[in-house]
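#struct-help
A.M.: can someone run this one for me? Single chain, 196 residues.
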Amino acid sequence: ALNDAWLKSALEELLEDLRKNLSALRFEHVLSTTETAISLGRTHQANEIILQVSGYLHDFAREMPVKKQEEILKSEGLEDPIALENPVLHHAKVAAILGKQRYGFPDKWVEPAKWHTTGRAKMTLEDVILYVSDQIEPKRAWSTERLLDEAHTNLSLSFKNCLLQKLEFTLKRGKMVHPDSIQCWNWLCLGNSWAD
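D.P.: on it. Structure tokens below:
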């Protein structure tokens, strides 16, 4: 059963593993992203447990060797030809896998971590909040009070702007755009909002 004592213990273990496996800068980013996500979650009445778990998890595998990430994805049948061309995308799905396998977190709790790099169609509220928080948390060089305020007052606009910025960055570098990101953009353009 998922009780408070189990959750507290799992989160402590995860934090300790993050502290051991990430650079100090990346670890600070993870903490800042999680704090931002929880703050936005309170504003938008999202599930704070999902935001805390997925916030801690989202960059869990970011500094793991690419070969190891690819082995984990292969073992789960999740090889992604587009991500092979842009391996920085691997870490999101690897984080979700390890969140379930290592710590026993349910699917719903790790999903926002899985989609924080590409997005997808039919994002949940928690997916959107983590996606935005990862991009605008205060330790990011480009983060401003205006961006943080906008996420609290108009999450939909904030999300669209964050996704557009990522798409532009990818296109300007001549990289392939992941189909999940295209589907996410099209889903937003059709006026859709997050699913429950």
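A.M.: thanks! The first helix runs from residue 4 to 21.
D.P.: also worth noting: The two ends are 23 Å apart (CA to CA).
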